[in-house]
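stage 2 :: seqdesign
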């Protein structure tokens, strides 16, 4: 893991503020490591600049606190919401991720433009990636 850590993917201001435990099980930590190795680190290497994680792993209690859906891949350690800083940068990052996927450099389950590139949701399901691209307003 070159650029991202499991700890970074578990950090949550909401969890800290509300005293919510957000420590993954060993199985979920393994999925977070796979997410980093298969997507986040390769994307960061090609992007060439900082990428921040807004939300990674969410315990069930944290997921409920932030209004996440019960089927969220964040609960499984398979997803991260990331940003390159601005909606314009996020649009460029989104396009770069599509380029990488098209070139066979990465495979993802879902790549979602959230709220006109306010952030990007990206997920990875080992052996079950759908390579699905969505735009949610």
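stage 2 :: out
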């Amino acid at each position: 893991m070159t650029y991202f850590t499991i700890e970074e993917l578990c950090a949550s201001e909401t969890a800290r503020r509300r005293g919510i435990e957000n420590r993954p099980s060993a199985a979920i930590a393994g999925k977070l490591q796979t997410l980093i190795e298969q997507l986040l680190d390769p994307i960061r290497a090609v992007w060439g600049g900082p990428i921040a994680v807004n939300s990674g792993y969410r315990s069930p209690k944290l997921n409920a606190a932030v209004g996440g859906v019960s089927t969220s891949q964040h609960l499984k350690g398979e997803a991260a919401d990331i940003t390159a800083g601005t909606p314009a940068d996020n649009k460029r990052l989104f396009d770069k991720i599509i380029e990488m996927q098209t070139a066979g450099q990465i495979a993802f389950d879902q790549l979602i433009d959230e709220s006109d590139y306010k952030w990007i949701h990206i997920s990875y399901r080992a052996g079950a990636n759908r390579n699905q691209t969505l735009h949610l307003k």
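stage 3 :: structure notes
- The chain has one domain: 6-136.
- The mean pLDDT is 96.
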